[in-house]
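ok new one. same drill as before - structure tokens go in, u give me an amino acid for every spot. 96 of them this time. try not to just spam alanines like last time pls lmao
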């Protein structure tokens, strides 16, 4: 958790520096940094906060032994896989 939030904080700081010092930086370099920071913040932190955390909170209220619990768990797995793959699919874009 520390590395996840630490990286998010570091990306926010770097994003702020690039925005405020855009004129002093090489514009191509600054554009790449800006794009990669936005990809990380939206693709990793944003997906976790907006999609994964509410699903985890809803999952915590399920009674595992109930029929409704089994159906909701199956639905959770489908949705979780979809949103969990998004951060890993953006890694090639960050390394380019």
């Amino acid at each position: 958790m520390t590395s996840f939030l630490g990286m998010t904080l570091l990306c926010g700081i770097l994003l702020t520096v690039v925005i405020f010092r855009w004129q002093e930086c090489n514009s191509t370099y600054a554009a790449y940094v800006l794009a990669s920071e936005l990809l990380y913040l939206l693709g990793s932190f944003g997906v976790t906060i907006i999609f994964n955390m509410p699903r985890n909170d809803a999952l915590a209220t399920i009674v595992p032994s109930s029929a409704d619990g089994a159906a909701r768990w199956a639905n959770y797995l489908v949705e979780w896989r979809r949103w969990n793959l998004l951060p890993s699919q953006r890694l090639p874009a960050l390394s380019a």
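The first helix runs from residue 2 to 20. and btw The helical segments are 2-20, 27-60, 67-89, 91-95.
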